[in-house]
Amino acid sequence: MLSDTKETGGSTVENNSQVKAHYDALLGRTYTWMMGGASTNFEENRKFFDLHGLRPPTVDAKALDLGCGSGFQAIPLLELGYAVIAIDMSADLLQELKGHKEALARKVSGQSPLPSLTLIEGDILRLRALLPSDALASVDLAVCMGDTLTHLQSTAQVQSLVKNAVSFLKPGGTLILHFRDLTRHLEGTDRFLPCRTDENNIFTCVLEYEEAQETFLDGRDKEDRFVLINDLLYTRPDASAPWTFKKSQYKKLEVPPEEVLKMMQDAGMDTSFHPLAFGVVAVMGRKKP
What we know:
- It comes from Nannochloropsis gaditana.
- By secondary structure, the chain is of the alpha/beta class.
- It has helices at residues 17-34, 38-51, 74-80, 91-107, 127-130, 155-168, 257-266; strands spanning 2-6, 62-66, 83-88, 117-121, 139-144, 169-180, 192-198, 201-215, 221-235, 244-253, 269-275, 280-287.
- The radius of gyration is 19 Å and the shape is globular.
- 38% of the residues are buried.
């Protein structure tokens, strides 16, 4: 079973409109390819979930995929037996996820039916507006993986997301926040990253580091540090065609892992920290009874 829902009561949160515009203009249509392809990422996450012993605790277990993209997490979670609610701002990526689910359904045709997949186009910061109130304390697993967390525009938004995600978890439910630690700055030409190339596409990313100010209610200032992401794509339909150059930019938030650990603990979770490859970290929490 698969259902689609669009966000009502407003579109994206204003602060995140730049991210949505970037995905709509450039990254949404190239993201899966740029990340190495769907099959590679499905397999990586199958191994990740298996390593951490994530299994549906009941036959009707639910998982919430925040910033689901094209389904790198959602598809393995469906395979495990979770009914998945998948939320993303990119219509292109949600459509791609829908296609992956349909392909999986054909592959397992004649076997046990797949759990349901609900697709919601909307901003994960409006989680309480996107999901019905009876969904509170009903979810067994919530994941926010890839670069989704760094797309938020302040540590205050990260904290709000954590609190809201935990509110939808059952006691004993698990939250996984998986993101790149951008607090370790690259310098010089190391900031120029060749993301992926094939015969008809050349994708490069250039990083610039900047700072912004956020003011607390008591007048204190807190610095939120950002990385300006410049995505550069040369593309052509085939070898006989001329190259076309596309470019777009948006900000990513530097999210200190130790702050995320504290946020999850403050939200009533027992936590663990897992450093992964290429500067990626996973912070995992289990909601206390």
